[in-house]
Write a structure and sequence with these properties.
The chain has five helices and two strands. The protein has 112 residues and is mostly helical. The chain has a two-stranded antiparallel ribbon with strand order 1-2. The N and C termini lie far apart (38 Å).
């Protein structure tokens, strides 16, 4: 990784953490997570914000356009879907076989 790529990665993670902090402290989201490294040929860092259900996904999408225009809003997905290994084809396509297997393995039994 070049110095420029390292700086960009740091700034992107810092931005995602600032968004997470704002959403938790000021907008009532419960928890957030940010990936700390890229996998395979993925070029995007992902910020996950969690709430009890999907009742606020449109609010977040609207706020995304107003306050976080430099961040790509994808969609709402439950933590349960994440644990069940449900990921977008766009994400999975960029992974090698071992990483794809890791992400698509059902982990619900490990977390119950």
């Amino acid at each position: 990784m070049s110095l420029l790529e390292s700086i960009f990665s740091f700034l992107k993670i810092k931005t995602d953490l600032e968004i997470a902090k704002n959403e938790i402290l000021n907008n009532g989201f419960h928890v957030a997570k940010v990936n700390s490294g890229l996998l395979g040929s993925n070029t995007e860092y992902v910020l996950c914000l969690y709430y009890q259900d999907d009742g606020r996904k449109y609010e977040l999408a609207e706020r995304h356009g107003e306050q976080y225009s430099d961040t790509k809003y994808r969609y709402w997905k439950s933590d349960e879907d994440t644990l069940k290994g449900k990921y977008s084809e766009e994400f999975l396509y960029k992974l090698d076989g071992a990483d794809k297997q890791h992400f698509t393995t059902d982990k619900t039994k490990e977390h119950s």
